[in-house]
Structures are given as structure tokens and as C-alpha cells.
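Summary for the lay section of the report: proteins are chains of building blocks that fold into shapes. Here we show the chain for LacI family transcriptional regulator and then a coded description of the shape we predicted for it.
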Amino acid sequence: MERKPVPGRRATIGDVAELAGVSKQTVSRAINDKGEIGAATKERVLEAARSLGYRPSRFARGLRLQDSVTVGLLLSDVTNPYYPEVASGVLEVAEDRGWHVVVGDSRGDRRRELEALQVLARQADALIGQCSSPDEELARELPGVPIVLLDHPPGHRGHGSVRIDFTSGMRQAVDHLVLDRGRRRIGVLEGTPRANPATERRLSAEQRLREHGLPAGADWTAHAVSHTVAGGEAALAELLTARPDMDGVVCYNDQIAIGAMRELKRAGRRVPADVSVIGFDGLPLGELVTPSLTSVHIDKARLGRLAVQEVARLLADPTAPPVPDAPVVHPELVVRGST
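The coded shape description reads as follows.
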């Protein structure tokens, strides 16, 4: 018994009944482990369900039984302060709807990402996550599961998305350094290994630097091997060796920026008198360092609210095509002591 799931359409109980050659009532008994069904028939039904990628709609059952919706939230790294803030935003708005949230952590590993999503999918009606796996792979591995992707353009049918406008955020950061602080030799600390494609944050910063007539590119970029303070320290040391006359730096995130400030101090450079530093994310952590960190702030509560709204849209119609324009969170520069 073998039939491929239909791309873009969630399998129904009727599809399972047709493939197994039984009634819908028999499918329901087999799926819910009820009596009055033979072992061979039950196995045939379950095999049909597996073949089609069928998942009973907990959402539809919740409408009938006043049960609550459960959302699975996949985080990339729970040790990074950014992700608990995102989780807090999702939890807050989900709680307002009376929904439950279960959380998983991929630890930044793509293999673990798919495994974690599959575990969450067995417990939840829909998923929210910042995923590195391609749309096609997610659709193949999680057929029929509504997924809302963070920092991701609209794509596969049955997938929603919420974008962060990194371009406007980095334009604000670069404009502040150039126009407000008069910096002319500005480096970029990227958040991925050198072999990886450039992130939107880096590309946006470099584009704006060039628009100001300033040098930008690989010669003015260092790569943090991790999104941590230590990663920022190492990347800044590398960049400072290559560009000792650097007078400003924009960073992939706040932790990398704090590491950059620590390394500048170690090298005898004053922040901001000698080098201005800007982070990205707007974590409360940035207010606790000296000098306090200028950062491009992302409204994590709004990110969570928009993601939950996308989940509600998909649950109402799991086969709906992706919207042409995903909801967008627009970051805002918060100026503090580091610039």
C-alpha cells in the first residue's frame, strides 16, 4: 500500500478510508485506538495514514470539543538571549487566545532541526520556527503540518512567514555612524562562517556603505564563528588586524557587538571615542554593559503576535496559498553610549 501525499494539500480522513478500503468511522476507530476493529484492519488503516502523511486535525476537534490549540515553537539556540525573548512574545499572544505552546531547541543543527520539528508536530496543531531547511524539505518531512517560518519569505503552500526588515535596520545603523557620528572606515562583523552565503544583515550594511561612497566587502568584514560574546571578540580581533584604522563597526547581533567592545578595550581602543559599535536585536543585555550598547531593536512581542496570527490563518484553511506579502517587523535604532 503506497500513495504519495498530494503536494500542497493535507490528507483527509476520507483519503485514508478510500486507500484502506474502509469507512471513515473505521478510520476514526483505528486512529483513536478504539475497540470493535480487528488487528489486521487497524494495521491496514494505520499504514494508509502513514502513506498519505495523514494527521488528525486537533484544531477541528478542538472546535467541537472546546479543546485548546497547541502550537509548537522551535528555537535555534535557547542559550542565546534573543530566542527566549521571541518565545516570550509568542507565549504572551498565544495565552491571550487560550492556546498552549510547546518548545523545542535545534541547537543550530539542521539534522536536529528536522527531528525536533517532527517531535513537536506530534504534539501540536501547527509549528512556528526559524528554520534553515528548504521549504520543499519541510513539506516532504512534515506533510500537512501548518508551519509559520520566521525571517523567511513567503513560499510553499501551507507555510506562512513573518519577515524582519533587516535592510531598513542596517540602513539606520550605517546612516547613524556616517551622518550623525562622521565615521568613514566602518567594518562589519558577520554572523556566519566565511564559507556560508552572506546574510541579509551583512548585504544590507554593505550596500548602504557603498551608497555613502565608503569601502565595503570582504576586506572590511570578519566572521564570528558563533553568535556569542566570544565569537564577537575573535571576529573583532581579526578585523582590527586587517583594518587598524577602523573607526566604526556594525555587528550581526548584540552579543557579537558586546564581544567587539570587550576586544576593543583589550586592544586599547576607546568606545566610542576611537571606534563606534552598533549591535542588532535590541536585547536588554545591551543596557547592562559600559558603555551601553547602541542597537537596532527588534520588537519581539510584535514578531510573536504576527506569527500567532499567521498560525490562526493557516489553521482556518491549511491549503491556503501563501500570501504575496508576508507580515513584516520593522526594527528601530536605539542610540546609547557605544556610538
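Put simply, here is one thing we learned. Residues 59-66 have pLDDT under 50 and may be disordered.
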